[in-house]
Task: structure prediction
Amino acid sequence: MKKSIVFAIVIIAVVAAFFIVDTLFFQKKVEPTIPKTIYEKDATVKEQAAETQGKTEEVIAGKIKKVEKERDFDAIKLELIEICRELDTKDYIKAYDLKQGTFNKFSEVLEKLAYNPPVVSGETNDLYTLLSNAAHFYRRASKEDIGLVKDILDHEHDRIEILMAVVYDYLVTGSRERRLMINIGQLYEYAGFFLNTLGGKAYLYRRDYATRTLTQYYSVLILDQANKEKMNPYGIDIMPHVRLLRQELEGYRGLVGADSYLAVLQGIEASTQR
Result:
């Protein structure tokens, strides 16, 4: 009994330490203040906002359909390269002095993480493993790499849904067609990490609603794909995660593509045999 209490205290201390390190060394930027014009009762402002939101919903819904139709990998790669080229023109990216550009940096970081996955099963068996998982990204990627990713998430927050849809499409299609140096098993490891471990959940807890929810959503999609391919060695039950995400999306409509995400989750729930 005493051992259980001590270990529980150690786990809490580890998670708390992770939060402190994340705050001190990799602080998340303060959310920008929303301009007052958003709240003005100006009909033109409201119409423009509605039009922009409608277009974003259409784009996101279209990308989800394209994922389902298994788009050609070359087309997806070209789209991602174009996004990276556009990012390369921005001042906050130029500050990193990336000699080969954002796309090559993305590929480099992806390879680092893919071949050094976190622990998904047995995380709490010993203190070393628990600590390693809590600091996984800080151990496997450089401080500059992490800073770059966080800067992109902060500066491109208004289109994060579209960016994450493209990245997911690129990773899953590339792994399925064996066009990338990663496979569905490696993607599954990270999906399990975010959904099913203290280290992964602690990391997401520190992120904003959009980043956290979208990461969980695409982790569920990867887990669903792994289930279809009979590649769920840790036996992670997808249903609790599907239900939790549905509650999140139904309770707080903070994402433009919420309806599209809900439709996909409902499809997974309907097709999953119990």
Remarks:
- The chain has a mean pLDDT of 81.
- Residues 2-28+71-271 form one domain.
